[in-house]
Design a protein that fits this description.
This protein has 533 residues and is of the alpha/beta class. The protein has 18 helices and 23 strands. The strands form five sheets. A nine-stranded mixed sheet has the order 13-12-14-15-23-22-21-18-19, with helices on both faces. Strand 12 (292-300), helix 12 and strand 13 form a beta-alpha-beta unit. Helix 1 crosses helix 9. It is globular. The chain starts with a strand and ends with a helix. Bound molecules: glutamine. Glutamine binds at residues 356-358, 384-385, 408, 463-466.
């Protein structure tokens, strides 16, 4: 293909319609036709990145290979496409303004008044096209966060309006996602919200090329015709997106609705052959027809909002499917666990995962859960803070180091088994200052971890400030909790195991960020396997 094509995805009526999944599904279909595709998310909030956001606000913060803290939709993009995203794939209003203000301070604008139009919109356009330069991708799909009509999204809408005008109609197109609600009282599906939402887009100078209508029941041809007529789009460009039992079904549903074909047709590209989705379909078959079920406890402190652990949830779906096993996740609030109820709360679990996290709320509940898993030989997986809790528990109860702790929770602990990393000392700013992104790790042969990865040299993504304190390494090793993965450059402990236990693995990194449909993460796969046997 000669030029990169740009597809802009907007949403109307309400948020949470699944723009991210529609974008990822379309990308998957194009990828399955042999195109190179990437997806970008533009977020209209003023935080420079979501790294400083409480997970209750927007769910999990997803970390890329290059260490960007990003929106959780990037996780979907990677899980669907199996190719890494980067800092350039998530842009916020905060980042746009930061860069424009920096340029202004440098004097780049040569005395001009700096304004939303053209300076902010030009910066948005630059960020969108960054992914298109060097022609690494045939398609760049840009998802605009928020809902049309929001004050915050206006500069983005204006920027993409200009971009299509500049690029030409066969190099860019607009997809607009709306909701068609069913009103029980009248027994009807309603198209008015869609009409209104398209009107808002039109007021901003954008005529959508394709409409994707989210619905909980099938839309008939008459309804599609009506929407087409009132919204000024071709009838075949009105696509239904019906609620699916799993997000992984959506590419198949979009293929049935010919979303990819319509896109290719409008961009004057060949659409004669159908996208081949075989490995994907085989994953779906396994996901939907499990032979066993296991109940695994996810112990964390944001459990009221499962989106806070999005990548972990999805990793279990991928790993479950490989094992032909349905993983029933029981979310356990660590604040509710104490000595008196830990046995009761965790008793029917076949495996326990302690989730990542920050701060001391609920920390003792996590430490008790690690103790329960260790003493009862229940498969255990500690992720980041989860590893740190297992280390603290082992120090207190096996090494008998009373009041051992992480200096994150107890600055004056007599036994700082988890301590601030050297490079973190002296850092005071919070945004983007953790140890972030991909780092190497060397795995010891003959361990559960090696059995999973089947190789010694790996790279995994990080997001933390604290680490295992190597002063205690010998004591741990002698007592039966051993480091089996070490960063070869810095000597930081990356993975700890208890070899005498059925399956007890703690990792300082976040394996969940790298699990995809086609390449489920080996540690999740073997953890689930250990819970079945
Ligand atoms: N709070 C811990 C640290 O900063 C763990 C972080 C995490 O679980 N991502 O090291």
């Amino acid at each position: 293909m000669s030029l990169t094509k740009y597809i802009f995805v907007t949403g109307g009526v309400t948020s949470s319609l699944g723009k991210g999944i529609i974008s990822a599904s379309l990308a998957k279909l194009l990828q399955a036709r042999g195109y190179t595709v990437t997806i970008q998310k533009l977020d209209p909030y003023i935080n420079v990145d979501p790294g400083t956001l409480n997970p209750y606000e927007h769910g999990e913060c997803y970390v890329t290979e290059d260490g960007a803290e990003t929106d959780l939709d990037l996780g979907h993009y990677e899980r669907f496409l199996g190719i890494p995203t980067s800092q350039a794939n998530n842009i916020t209003t905060g980042r746009i303004y930061q860069s424009v203000i920096n340029k202004e301070r440098r004097g780049d604008y040569l005395g001009k008044t700096v304004q939303v139009i053209p300076h902010i919109t030009d910066e948005i356009k630059r960020c969108i096209q960054l992914l298109g330069i060097k022609h690494k991708f045939d398609f760049v799909i840009t998802e605009i966060g928020g809902t049309v009509g929001d004050i915050e999204s206006l500069p983005y809408i204006e920027a993409v309006r200009q971009l299509k005008w500049e690029l030409g109609p066969t190099n860019a197109l607009y997809i607009h996602l709306t909701l068609v609600p069913y009103l029980k009282t009248s027994g009807e599906l309603k198209t008015k919200p869609t009409q209104h939402s398209v009107k808002v887009l039109l007021e901003n100078g954008i005529q959508p090329d394709i409409l994707v209508l989210r619905t909980d029941r099938d839309l008939n041809d008459d309804l599609k015709k009506k929407v087409a007529l009132f919204c000024n789009v071709d009838q075949e460009a009105v696509v239904q997106s019906i609620d699916a039992s799993t997000i992984y079904e959506v590419p198949i549903l979009m293929q049935k609705e010919k979303l990819d074909e319509t896109v290719l047709k409008k961009l004057k590209l060949d659409y004669s052959e159908k996208a081949k989705l075989e490995p994907w379909r085989s994953f779906l078959r396994k996901l939907k027809n499990p032979k066993h079920t296991v109940k695994i406890g996810l112990v964390g402190k944001y459990v009221e909002l499962p989106d806070a652990y999005k990548s972990i949830n999805e990793s279990f779906k991928h790993a479950g499917a490989v094992n032909e096993c349905e993983v029933e996740l029981k979310y356990i609030h660590s604040e509710n666990i104490d000595e008196s109820n830990v046995n009761e709360e965790l008793k029917d679990l076949k495996g326990i995962l302690i989730a990542p996290g920050f701060g001391d709320r609920g920390i003792e509940g996590k430490i008790l859960s690690a103790k329960y898993a260790r003493e009862n030989n229940i498969p255990f997986f500690g992720v980041c803070l989860g590893l740190q809790c297992a280390v603290i528990e082992f120090a207190r109860n096996v090494l008998k180091l009373e009041k051992a702790h992480s200096t994150e929770m107890a600055r004056k602990t007599p036994y700082p088994v988890i301590d601030l990393m050297e490079e973190q000392k002296g850092i005071t700013e919070k945004g983007g200052t953790m140890r972030l992104g991909s780092y190497p790790c060397t795995i010891k042969k003959g361990t559960k971890t090696y059995e999973a990865y089947k190789k010694q040299d790996i790279e995994e993504r990080h997001r933390h400030r604290y680490e295992f304190n190597n002063l205690f390494l010998d004591d741990f090793r002698k007592a039966g909790m051993v480091p089996v993965g070490i960063n070869p450059e810095t000597n930081l402990v990356e993975i700890m195991e208890i070899p005498d236990h059925k399956w007890f693995v703690g990792v300082q990194f976040h394996p969940e960020y790298k699990s995809t449909v086609i390449n489920p993460h080996p540690l999740f796969v073997n953890f689930v396997k250990a819970t079945i046997s």
